[in-house]
Amino acid sequence: MQAMPIRIFLILFMLVLILPSTLLAATEQRIALVIGNSAYSSSPLKNPVNDAADMAANLQRLGFSVTLKKNASHQEMEDSIRVFGDQLKKGGVGLFFYAGHGVQIGGRNYLLPIGARIDKDTDVKFRAVDTETVLAEMGNAGNNLNIVILDACRDNPFGRSFRTGSRGLAIISDAPKGTLITYSTSPGRVAADGSDRNSPYTESLLRHMNTSGLPIEEVFKEVRRDLGRKTGGQQVPWELSSLEGQFYFSPGKQSSPITSSATYNLSIEQRKIEAERDRMRKERELLEQQESLEEERRILEEKKKRLSMGGQYSIPAAKEIKRDGRFIAYDNRTILDTRTNLMWAAKDNGRDINWGSANAYCDNYRGGGYTDWRMPTQDELAGLYDANKSQQAECSSSSQNHVHVATDLIHLTCVALWASETRGSDAALFQFAVGSRFWSLQSLGTADRALPVRSGK
Fold it and tell me: 86 and 217 share a domain?
């Protein structure tokens, strides 16, 4: 029998290595517990509740099933950690995020709940939450990968009544295999709460974890560079890791959320190719934006010219080309919902966009020759959701690859659409992968799209 050619052998060997990670990515469960404590009676903090809310919304968009606790008591924190541990027993990725006051006593780290009466350092053991509790739940679950993010190094609010002079948090020396622990600053140092909506650490982390195809270690390296520049080297985040494979918060087209260490060693060239593709994609998006701007400028100049000549801006008559239940498609790429009498654009803007740009896109949209397009409300978007219908999403940054729209006449390229409602620096969205309403920072825009709407005539 002739020996197997070496090229065929190598191909089979690569498939053996790559296929397990592909299967794992397809079935991966992502579970997160997010806690933010601000309303302390002593030394209250401004940002942890904001940090937790923004982190929870971002993780949800990245495919995590999220439990969010704001200003949690001691009992609430312990109960939620216990439930979190039970959820992790189903396997997948576990993530714990905490923002608030944290102290170290005797080399152990404690997260301070709201309403706890702590008069001296010996009270902490019984009235605060030991971070070892979280790690113990992760270890007991036995899942493959865990992430612990502690933005909890604000200064000790009870320092004057404590015998110890320790500041910040201590290094955790014992954690389950496959765990990454990250601190918002170096051991024994204190991190800034921040004067804006988020702490400097969480603000940077929210931005970089949305970068498509960026491995988790590189995410935290980018955060460390940001904080070093912003604080002049005074705040330097740290990580401890026993990860064996590779994890992506936002996988690229060619990246699985988790890959084995062998696949990681084989995929260096692949990631270079993906980086080049990402650069080309950004250049293409820039050109498309410029073309769109030129088209809007042309329409505006044409309208000005007609008005200056004393004529009125006429809207060409639209012809019906297709029906789908209550929806009617016209040849000018508009879709009329006869139930609500709302007219929709036939397709969203087709690229990641933040709320401000999405609002401008809708206001300046001139589909069908109409000038009264606007951004829809959350309720109007919810009216387009139908769990029984499905479309393939095109975006690579989304963990869900299907969207559920009531008609195929309206095409969505990704899972979430911006809505017109705002509250402070947040804006509303509707998620068409699972049919949920949520809020996010207006400045963020990963996997978010804009779909103009107007009142039909």
Answer: yes
